[in-house]
Amino acid sequence: MERVLHSVCFCWIFSLLYMVTPLLACPENCECPLTELRIECDDINTLSSLPTFDDDPDVYSYIEQLIIERQTAITRIDNLTLRAFPRLQVLKLGGNNISEIAHDAFAGNKELTTIELDQNGFQYLPWQPFAYLFKLKKLTLAGNNLKCGDCNHHWLQELIHKNKTSKELLCWDDKTKQQIKLNDVTFDKDCILPNVSVSTNYVRLNESQRTEIDCTATGSPTPTIKWLLTPNNHSIVNITNGKKLIVHSAYHDDNGEILCEASNEAGNDIKVVNLTVQFAPKINDFYAILGEEIFYKTLFFNISGIPMPEIEIFHGTDKLAIDTEGSFLKRGENNFSPTLNSFNGSVHFVRCSHANNGNYTLVIKNTFGSDKATLYNLIFVGDPGPGFEHVNSTAQQVFPTGLTGPTNYPVYETKPSVPIPYVIVLAIIAAIIVLVACFIKFRHKKSRRHHHAFENGEVLDPLRPHAPTLPMVENPNYLNGILVFSLETHHIDRNKIHFMKALGEGAFGLVYLGTYKCINDPLHDTRVAVKRLKDAARGDARKDFEREAELLANLQHDNIVTFYGVCMEKEPFLMVFEYMENGDLNNYLRCRGPDADCLTKDEVSLLPLTYNELLYISKQIASGMVYMASQHFVHRDMATRNCLVGERLVVKIADFGMSRDVYSTDYYRIGGQTMLPVRWMPPESINYRTNTIESDVWSYGVVLWEIFEYGKQPWFGLSNVEVIEKILSNQQLECPKACPKEIFEIIKGCWERKPQDRLPIKEIFERISRFSEEMPPFLDMSGKNTLV
Ligand code: 0F4
User: Fold this and answer.
1) What is the residue with the minimal CA distance to atom 10 of ligand 1?
2) How confident is the model at residue 328 (pLDDT cuts 50, 70, 90)?
3) According to the model, what pLDDT value does residue 476 have?
4) Cα gap 687→787, rounded to integer Å
5) Please, are residues 514 and 528 in contact by the beta-carbon 8 Å criterion?
6) Residue closest to 552 by CA, chosen among 633, 484, 474
7) Closest Cα to residue 32, out of 44, 24, 20?
């Protein structure tokens, strides 16, 4: 009965949300299972030509497989046909009638790994379309009319030798009037594949130096030689007659590979020159994570410079030893990024206390110069606790040659103060008490139908947003690892969802616009946003998906993203959300600032948001946050990029995760996977990675700043390390021009250094509501209704 009621409500909600549905972007006579990122047109002779694929670039830009088969009307692949598919990996064009292909047919499809051209009408297949498909693993060509002796096909023998096409590939021999294997054909002396060589494969020089590299080639007909440069190379590299490359004045942006290509009718050949321009060291990032675990704290840095700079770290004026074995300062994960020419490094403080508080300076040097950066006032918290004894020792530490140890550093040594079995028994009893206490607390909250409560001050893992990293309680909704949905999680029939296109030009990852069919009332199909889980088998992906679905089902408020349910009976797993026509709030604000130049669909300029509208947006977010706080839910990534805007300026809080390319610069990547939205984080979260209702309030202050700056990035123009320096040294963002002083007072109340001094979210909401009441929400200063 409960489920029936749910279905009825669901349709009813959708009916209320009904909007006119635009046409599906799938070409006629094709199938587009968009969740599988595939377009398939293989019903025999249903296409009169290749579809143009230019009606909806959003959709096609995500497609990974294109299958157009058994269409005898298709005779040519031109340079425009496939340009809509930059991510295309598999192209199947078998059983058509294609006999021509443009030289740049695949110029925009560098990800192609498989091309099937079997059973077509090719007599000649030029090498040019395939020349720069460096990822190509398989090309199939069976059942064409390839001419054997044609010099144009010599390159295909090379492909056979590289196992990229079949040894059995046949061609038509005009002399013997029969099919023979292309692999057995001997090409005459006028048809020899180019063989290119360069005067050096590796060049190392200093900035502003000059050098020349020669490229020569053999082959018949005489090959044409050209250097293939990247946009970075253009300004300083000059080429003479194609053969000689002159680096007039080297610059470190030129570092990397330069290619020389020789080509003739028979095919092409490419050789690589590695160019290394030496340059002075530069610190791009220097950042500390302290307090994550009491005895494990890390300094991260990103540096560049060739040769690899020597690295030194100072505490005040004392040089610290970096130990590979793990004494005081231990070398962490290091890796070199050749594309960025930079080096990510880290060192861990293995044992430390408040005596290590202070300034830390990173100094890097190579033969071309040096650079340094300082982190001020790092604070190491945490009492070492029972079982640890404070000893003053430097003698026990092992330092690599050439490095000296810290002078008089206190070192904590593990030393059990009670017999081990006793400690284990105590630990087990303590763990049982904690588990029982947590379970009772959990049940209590569940009885109020909210079981996602994280108490103030809990330390949370930013990568698994809703998983507490402190004592975990087995979620009673999981039985043997399988989620038993609470009543709130609705199951949706995927067959009633019709996919249309990627939302926000892919800015939300795998989130698509779709329509949902309501039984008995086809007129009331409604638009929905559908999130697709890419690979449920990967790591904890399924568990995280279930956990998020359950959480979303239980967070129900007018200003929290509306979640309709899941499709989980088979893959791909889907989550279905309300469609919010204006997309994310950050983008919305940017398009409606006084200097914005965005146009509507009808090419009309958008009007800037008024003071009242900005206030209305702020109030709704505060309202959603009051609700989250009432549920003890800590969001941890409050920012305008994580809010959605619907019709009539309705704003809802969501959490789209950190992997959106468009907002990648809002996160500071530290170490391997950890991303921190440092521009929105209070000092204590930066230092100790704690996330609390109070740290959400700090972030809300930054959200207000974003709103009244029409979507600007906080501390724009500063690097993440500079931002951290600002935040940790108590510097604050300035009052935005459009921000009334009363609102800036609230912002400052959110940015109190001590979490307990910050304004409670309820008071913030009440204060903003009072302002809003002073003027009707939808009228601007001149009394004009701005929301119609
Ligand atoms: F509390 C909370 F809501 F903030 C919260 C807490 C914990 C987890 C989540 N999870 C969450 O929001 N997940 C999520 C993931 C992916 C998609 C969505 N929802 C979503 C995304 C984009 C659009 C949408 N509706 C639209 O109309 C969307 C985009 C768009 C672009 C242009 C027009 N519309 C729903 C949620 C939340």
Assistant:
1) 655
2) low
3) 28
4) 43
5) yes
6) 633
7) 24
Give 56's contacts (C-beta < 8 A, 6+ positions apart).
25, 501
What is the helix (H) or strand (E) element at residue 68, kind and residue range? strand 65-68
Per DSSP, the residues of 407-456 read TT-EEEEE--SS-HHHHHHHHHHHHHHHHHHHHHHHHHHHHTT------T
Task: Count CB-CB contacts under 10 A for residue 606.
Answer: 14
Q: Pick the residue whose CA is nearest to atom 1 on ligand 1.
A: 654
Section 637-648 average pLDDT: 97
637 catalytically annotated: yes
508, 562, 600: which to mutate for ligand 1, most atoms within 8 A of CB?
508
Sign of the Cα torsion 631, 634, 639, 641 reads negative
Could you tell me whether strands 178-181 and 170-173 are parallel, antiparallel, or unpaired per DSSP bridges?
Answer: antiparallel
Atom of ligand 1 nearest to the CA of 504: 31
193-223 per-position pLDDT tens digit:
999 999 999 999 998 888 899 999 999 999 9
Could you tell me the pTM of the whole model?
0.48
E strand or H helix at 392, and its extent? strand 388-392
Mind listing the pLDDT tens digit for each residue in 673-696?
788 999 999 988 887 778 899 999
Nearest-CA residue for ligand 1 atom 29 is 583
From residue 318, alpha-carbon distances to 324, 329, 408 in Å are 19, 13, 10
pLDDT at position 416 over 50: no
Asked if residue 289 has pLDDT above 50, the reply is yes
Please report which confidence band the pLDDT of residue 19 belongs to, taking 50, 70 and 90 as the band edges: very low
Cα 489 to Cα 491: distance, rounded to the nearest angstrom? 7
Among 254, 371, 525, 637, the one annotated catalytic: 637
- Residue 126: what residue type? P
